[in-house]
Amino acid sequence: MPYPEEAEGFQIDSAETWTDFHKRHFKLKPFDDYDVDVKIIACGVCGSDVHTISGGWGAQHFPLAVGHEILGIAVRVGPKVTLIKEGQRVGVGAQSFSCGECKQCKNENETYCPVIMIDTYGSQWPEKYGGVVSQGGYSSHVRTNERWVFPIPEGLDTNLAAPMLCAGLTAYSPLVRNGAGPGKKVGIIGLGGIGHFGILFAKALGAEVWAISRSRAKEEDARKLGADGFIATDETDWEKAHTFSFDLIVNCANSSKGFDLAKYLSLMDVHAPFVSVGLPEEAGQEIKAQNLLANGVLIGASHLGSRREMLEMLQLAADKGIKSWVEEIQIGEEGLKEAVTRLKKNDIKYRFTLTGYDKVFGA
Amino acid sequence: MPYPEEAEGFQIDSAETWTDFHKRHFKLKPFDDYDVDVKIIACGVCGSDVHTISGGWGAQHFPLAVGHEILGIAVRVGPKVTLIKEGQRVGVGAQSFSCGECKQCKNENETYCPVIMIDTYGSQWPEKYGGVVSQGGYSSHVRTNERWVFPIPEGLDTNLAAPMLCAGLTAYSPLVRNGAGPGKKVGIIGLGGIGHFGILFAKALGAEVWAISRSRAKEEDARKLGADGFIATDETDWEKAHTFSFDLIVNCANSSKGFDLAKYLSLMDVHAPFVSVGLPEEAGQEIKAQNLLANGVLIGASHLGSRREMLEMLQLAADKGIKSWVEEIQIGEEGLKEAVTRLKKNDIKYRFTLTGYDKVFGA
């Protein structure tokens, strides 16, 4: 069946066949009074997509179309929708629903809602919402509650805006929640999709920004993105010149292999937060209170960001002309296989955006 | 030699003989223009003393007199001392020196000074300060830089004030640095020496206070101390009714055996800090960013507290009539053996204060 009953997209059937995309129709959730249908025109390829389809984060609801950095056009809005207008260019990120009623939801912490959390792909909707498993943006359409649909400001290029919907917000929220700005020394660990936004946004917010990477291979890129300084952790005593000096570090590393956490923590000023946004597949790291004592560092994690933060980030990007580093790739079996394979190897500077949706799904 | 060249105290010679105290004379550091000599009249027995002498925290400078919850009289003040007057009743806590010049020292974070940190016992002074190993309060006198000597307000009983110098401040600082006060729900894990001050001070600061303990054995005590609620972690689903509800938890547990960190973290409101002040001897705990993601909790640790916080805490205790729960014990070979042996077994509600110094060291 065609839209509006169904969408068409590229699904993976198992973690063992995580590069074999199959073009299929699948059911959308029942249309709700607060829903917005988005006809997709571009979608970023997020590290989460690869972790999910390749089994790194454990069992999933297959078959599954991933993708949660969605740009498109609002082609249908429910009768009670007030936040989005039909025809508007909009984005959808990694989360598509929360209860809207709890303390967290009312406190702009909807990405921490303990009541209900529906991811844009791979979450089963409760029966009262139709019971289907949500399917992501490697597809023709998504149907999303208006609170999770974001108008895209004019002046932001569609293909550059798409990766901001997850990677951009993931970097932006911990920066603004932890005071990144003038007079603050901010470190960004890991120069990948999220990390490159970390540098762009920390700089745009006025902070002194240091890129922290395993080697100097990406130093030139980091400086082009706006980094004021660069630390390579394969150099002896790399941490020594920077102990007690960072006001905030956002850890965007996608792997914890060989990660000497104690050295990173030694970089922090007293009680300064060390916030992780990457979700490595490896085992965790041991911490003892003793390791946190020298500077009273706070170790935390951050999950996406609020609607307000999303809108502010997009506006900041538009106002300051912030340019994501994007390689476009044609959506389809081949393009997707290439994108996820290369992303798995970190062979991308620094984000793929899937384009050419009209060629595959019609105009 | 007698004071003022030397002090007399009870020393331990090795971790293997950690309950055998030997009364001896030992050299004091050379008297400095900013030093204050304190004739000791009481001293609390801190968990740190036991960890140190019994080898739980690794190698130490033996022979060693421990004790860092010191109350006494300032019997001599250096010519440049301005903070303390001769004859004043004063306290000395767990730290006795920091550089005084660095960013941390100038920012009321002297207990995080990265330049020099001299503990009240067991630290070797640099050669320019005489090179001796500092000896603690199980002795007749201590010689301490004035910045680490604290006037005791009238109205605070000596024996009840002594344990505040380390245990009290250790509980107080993370409370005030993390906003404990009216409208905040604060948890105190571990009802021992530090934890009982956690309840007393959190209550005095106006917070809603919950004691969190392994069983209900100490519930009555906790409520007498001022706890509004009590959670026993040996009960099934103990965490369920409290998820996402705590604004701050101060973890005063002295052991991490059987400690299911993930459940404790689930108690925290979004981005609320979980601050450890106990320093268990066991191995650390594994954390993954994934475990911190549901609520974006911040895990930290805290080390003592600033001079200002010490003075505020003592004044608060005097103003509000806060009473430490203290069992007095006569200083001497026997009393010390009993104190450290019982403390090792947590057989004390909730602090020993050593008294009767005049009987042992003269009036």
Automatic annotation (TrEMBL), chains A, B:
Domain Alcohol dehydrogenase-like C-terminal: 193-318
Reaction it catalyzes: a primary alcohol + NADP(+) = an aldehyde + NADPH + H(+)
UniProt keyword terms in alphabetical order: Metal-binding, NADP, Oxidoreductase, Phosphoprotein, Zinc
Enzyme nomenclature, EC number: 1.1.1.2
GO biological process: alcohol metabolic process
Listed InterPro entries: ADH-like_C, ADH-like_N, CAD-like, GroES-like_sf, NAD(P)-bd_dom_sf
Membrane-spanning intervals of the chain: none
GO MF annotations, alphabetized: alcohol dehydrogenase (NADP+) activity; metal ion binding
SUPFAM superfamilies: GroES-like, NAD(P)-binding Rossmann-fold domains
Cofactor: Zn(2+)
Subunit field text: Homodimer.
Family listed: Belongs to the zinc-containing alcohol dehydrogenase family.
Name of protein: alcohol dehydrogenase (NADP(+))
Organism: Exophiala bonariae
Upper classification of the organism: Eukaryota, Fungi, Dikarya, Ascomycota, Pezizomycotina
